[in-house]
């Protein structure tokens, strides 16, 4: 019997499980990334401490226009909240900070100010960690795709998410995946483009990974043609076991919705899933979907062999 593509790296549902060692490694990676992203906040806090130290009493702080935004942050106002506040509201927030928290701190008002500034900044960082977790998964997937292309000496273009421009391949750039949001290459004299997190007119929901029949120059034109979609996938980079079922249910629902939507256009692209945390019951369901052909392929993001096999398949389509 001819092997299904997933059977080249998966023998059973247990192969999909995330080992405890990889869970630990994932949490360490998240902690390091959080620390890296906290560097600007800490630097700002140090600068705030120096500026605030020039003031003898808390009421003098409001006179220093250089730290006005920092005072608002310390008052508990998030960037989103500030966009809805008028100048009078902002003045009240700063005055409330001084009267209720800084003046009662006495001679330690500068330390109190810095602590409250970091508290609000920390909340902002915590809120952004959900996006960071997804970014870590994208980076791992992207680096594997690039390694497969590099091994086969396939030149490519990549979409820079910062400049929103397509750039020439650079196999020696160790940080390319930090800004990569799409890859385009030539396969058997046919153009292929993989784009991340896209929404097209005929399908309202975002799709994590879309492999399209065509070059990057044509992406906007052909992207709205259902027949041009070769493979569509969901990518979940979260490593916390507590959120495993929720991530899978979200992904499974999205994949089912994709399948039903494409049926309307008599099109049937390959569907695949890659996740960092896969627990026992979840693995059974994924394996069942593979056997029943609701899914074409799947891989555990923490398993290099599985991820390489998945990416090699995508490059070959």
Structure description:
- The chain is of the alpha+beta class.
- It is built from nine helices and eight strands.
- It has helices spanning 20-52, 68-74, 79-82, 87-102, 109-151, 219-222, 244-263, 280-291, 304-316; strands at residues 156-160, 165-168, 180-187, 190-200, 203-213, 229-236, 270-275, 297-300.
- It has an eight-stranded mixed sheet, sandwiched between helices.
- A hairpin with a 2-residue loop joins strand 3 and strand 4.
- The model has no long low-confidence stretch (mean pLDDT 88).
The coarse overall form would be: elongated
Radius of gyration: 24 Å
What is the mean pLDDT?
A: 88
List low-confidence stretches.
Answer: none
Helix content: 40-55%
What is the number of beta strands?
8
Provide the β-strand percentage band.
15-25%
Distance between the termini: 21 Å
- The run of helices and strands is HHHHHEEEEEHEHEHEH
How are the strands of the largest sheet arranged? 2-1-3-4-5-6-7-8
- Helical segment count: 9
The biggest beta sheet reads: 8 strands, mixed
Task: Tell me the structural class.
Answer: alpha+beta
Outline the fold blueprint.
Elements: H1 20-52, H2 68-74, H3 79-82, H4 87-102, H5 109-151, E1 156-160, E2 165-168, E3 180-187, E4 190-200, E5 203-213, H6 219-222, E6 229-236, H7 244-263, E7 270-275, H8 280-291, E8 297-300, H9 304-316
Parallel strand pairs: 6-7, 7-8
Antiparallel strand pairs: 1-2, 1-3, 3-4, 4-5, 5-6
Helix pairs in contact: 1-5, 2-4, 2-5, 5-9
